């Protein structure tokens, strides 16, 4: 095959300027010798999404989670304000939406995850009004606090889909904040809280699940397992759920509905040769290298890595990816290895948090010399104040 001429070529091309892409670029910018790096990212805004739980709970203004993308691109790194449409790994190139063909020596793919609102019949275009809210979008997160504060009784339903999602604990964190708020400021009429989760357990690690079940009991929450939201009738205020084992569907009336949408890798990834059968970016779970193309690496939420999709996971993946990219450029053996570390700061109420940390084997990887399964105010303050600074000043600068 005769290769076409590239419009531009870089030693390292990074697809995605979110937490993963910026973190890898920042580490590569510190290397000696420094490789020629470009980031393909269409968005001009960057968000610290873990704080959206507290935005939805009325604790934080959403504007504090936003930064200009231009301010985060590492110095000396080329920012290409475009999006990738086609991967050509056999030709070491990608093609962007504008038609530009970009060549590379090493490709890093970290485009983040896609929210599939349209996968739930009747939902798209309805989120953010009429009692339907969600913390999973900057545009709709304010509606969550409005709905919680304005709730005056009836049935509050919170959902967790069967698909992998970013921040797997977030669907129940906002539920606990809502329950805590309603205990402190009771609605005028009787109410109930229903949690429909498309999983068989409240949390994958039993050490932390026990504390979450105590919170469920404290707030009187009704948990329905293996229930996946498939349709919403906004006018009738009913939600239809399908049981993942039996296939049986049931209708649940609601007064307030907090939706966590189904998620997937972006469509341009799912349709590419880099995706596995499930549509995620295929990658070795330790080296992050693609199994077919030795000069392609994947990390972050769009990857197939079998761990929770969190910013904390990306913080540990980024140095591995950067080290292995540099080794590939040198033609040297890969030295970086990722053990599946992830963290989920599980908010269980105002001033209450369980700090979950674990790895691929669900073994505990706790940072602090305490039992982190216990709900603590100190850990809540870590999430609210310390972790955002670690993100902006440490992780995205290649320092942590």
Report on this structure.
It is a single chain. The mean pLDDT is 97. This protein has two domains: 8-113 and 265-341 and 392-397, FAD/NAD(P)-binding domain, CATH 3.50.50; 116-262, FAD/NAD(P)-binding domain (3-Layer(bba) Sandwich). The chain contains eight helices and 21 strands. The longest helix is centred in the last third of the chain and has 20 residues, at 311-330. The radius of gyration is 22 Å and the shape is globular. α1 (19-28) links the parallel β1 and β2. The chain has helices spanning 19-28, 52-56, 141-150, 170-184, 206-219, 267-270, 311-330, 377-394, and strands at 8-15, 37-40, 45-47, 66-68, 78-80, 84-88, 93-96, 101-109, 114-115, 132-133, 154-160, 191-197, 222-225, 227-233, 238-243, 249-253, 256-258, 263-264, 296-298, 342-349, 352-358. The chain has 400 residues and is an alpha/beta fold. Strands 1, 2, 5, 6, 7, 8 and 19 form a seven-stranded mixed β-sheet that branches. It has a five-stranded parallel β-sheet with strand order 10-17-11-12-13. Helices cover 24% and strands 26% of the residues.
């Amino acid at each position: 095959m005769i290769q076409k001429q590239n419009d531009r070529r870089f030693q390292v091309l990074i697809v995605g300027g979110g937490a993963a892409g910026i973190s890898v670029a920042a580490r590569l910018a510190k290397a000696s010798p420094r490789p020629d790096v470009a980031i393909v990212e269409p968005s001009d805004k960057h968000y610290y999404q873990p704080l959206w739980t507290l935005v939805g709970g009325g604790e934080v203004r959403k504007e504090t989670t936003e930064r200009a993308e231009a301010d985060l691109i590492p110095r000396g790194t080329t920012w290409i304000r475009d999006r990738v449409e086609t991967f050509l790994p056999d030709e070491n190139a990608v093609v962007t939406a504008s038609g530009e063909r970009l060549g590379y020596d090493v490709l890093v793919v970290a485009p983040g995850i896609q929210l599939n609102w349209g996968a739930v019949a009747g939902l798209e275009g309805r989120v953010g009004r009429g009692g339907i809210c969600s913390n999973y979008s900057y545009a709709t997160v304010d509606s969550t606090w409005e709905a919680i504060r304005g709730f005056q009784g009836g049935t509050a339903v919170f959902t967790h889909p069967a698909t992998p999602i970013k921040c797997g604990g977030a669907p129940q964190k906002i539920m606990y904040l809502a329950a805590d708020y309603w205990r402190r400021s009771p609605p005028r009429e009787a109410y109930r809280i229903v949690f429909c989760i498309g999983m068989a357990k409240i949390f994958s690690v039993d050490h932390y699940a026990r504390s979450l079940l105590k919170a469920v009991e404290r707030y009187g929450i009704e948990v329905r397992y293996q229930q996946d939201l498939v349709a919403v009738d906004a006018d009738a205020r009913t939600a239809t759920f399908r049981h993942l084992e039996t296939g049986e569907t049931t209708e649940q009336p609601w007064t307030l509905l907090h939706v966590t949408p189904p998620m997937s890798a972006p469509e341009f990834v799912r349709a590419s040769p880099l995706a596995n059968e499930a549509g995620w970016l295929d990658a070795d779970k330790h080296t992050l290298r693609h199994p077919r193309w030795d000069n392609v690496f994947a990390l972050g939420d769009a990857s197939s890595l079998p761990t929770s999709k969190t910013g904390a996971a990306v913080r540990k993946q980024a140095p591995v990816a950067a080290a292995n990219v540099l080794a590939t450029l040198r033609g040297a053996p890969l030295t970086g290895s990722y053990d599946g570390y992830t963290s989920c700061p599980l908010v269980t109420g105002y001033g209450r948090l369980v700090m979950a940390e674990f790895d691929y084997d669900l073994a505990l990887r706790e940072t602090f010399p305490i039992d982190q399964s216990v709900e603590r105010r100190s850990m809540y303050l870590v999430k609210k104040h310390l972790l955002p600074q670690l993100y902006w000043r440490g992780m995205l600068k290649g320092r942590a």
